[in-house]
């Protein structure tokens, strides 16, 4: 079961990374296009090279239409894509001022409580995202510029949230077992300790 959950979490994180990288390229191209468009419409190019600037502008150089809508949808998906891997590897940032002095049993109890609460939050997020997706689907709402249905973004995030909820429940189950058997079943991650 652990292998399956880890594979799901890693695959989703890779997909999220690809989407995030594509969004970075999209944003850079859009900003570059916006700057080139502004420069070509500026006084210098309009007075010095009017035919050249007119020709370049006629190709459609400028910001990418709907870039904000795509970034908004893609970043939401990417965030949900990274949560499962972070949860299963215990990669969340922790502050261990007090816990470093606690016994292993108390730390195990604290980890179990945190992971059970986090699993409940992930399930709650999945449920509310599902309700939101159904609502957006029913309303037929579309984005302003690209006119794609808003529920598509919800559906993408919903898939990632589902994997996150599954992994969260799995980790919570393992933490309960660890507490009951006084053993360590999941390897602790190398989270950002502060």
Textual characterization of the structure:
The protein has one domain (2-181). It has six helices and no strands. The protein has helices spanning 2-40, 43-48, 50-58, 67-88, 104-139, 150-181. Helix 1 packs antiparallel against helix 6 and helix 5 (104-139) packs antiparallel against helix 6. It starts with a helix and ends in a 13-residue tail after the last helix. The mean pLDDT is 91.
Rounded Rg: 23 Å
Q: Label the structural class.
A: mainly alpha
The total tally of domains equals 1
**Number of helical runs?**
6
Number of strands: 0
Q: N- to C-terminal separation?
A: 31 Å
Helical fraction:
over 70%
Give the strand content.
under 5%
Order of helices and strands: HHHHHH
Note the topology.
Layout: H1 2-40, H2 43-48, H3 50-58, H4 67-88, H5 104-139, H6 150-181
């Amino acid at each position: 079961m652990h292998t399956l959950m880890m594979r799901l979490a890693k695959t989703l994180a890779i997909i999220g990374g690809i989407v995030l990288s594509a969004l970075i390229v999209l944003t850079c191209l859009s900003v570059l296009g916006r700057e080139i468009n502004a420069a070509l419409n500026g006084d210098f190019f309009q007075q010095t090279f009017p035919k050249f600037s007119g020709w370049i502008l006629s190709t459609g150089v400028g910001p990418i239409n709907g870039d904000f809508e795509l970034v908004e949808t893609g970043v939401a998906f990417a965030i949900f894509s990274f949560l499962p891997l972070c949860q299963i590897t215990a990669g969340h940032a922790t502050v261990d001022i007090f816990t470093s002095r606690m016994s292993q049993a108390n730390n195990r109890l604290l980890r179990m409580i945190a992971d059970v609460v986090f699993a409940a939050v992930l399930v709650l997020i999945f449920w509310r995202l599902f309700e939101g997706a159904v609502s957006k689907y029913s309303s037929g709402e579309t984005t302003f510029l690209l006119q794609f249905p808003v529920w598509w973004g919800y559906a993408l995030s919903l898939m990632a949230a589902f994997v996150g909820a599954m992994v969260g429940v799995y980790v919570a189950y393992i933490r309960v077992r660890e507490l009951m058997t006084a053993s360590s079943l999941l390897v602790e991650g190398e989270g950002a300790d502060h």
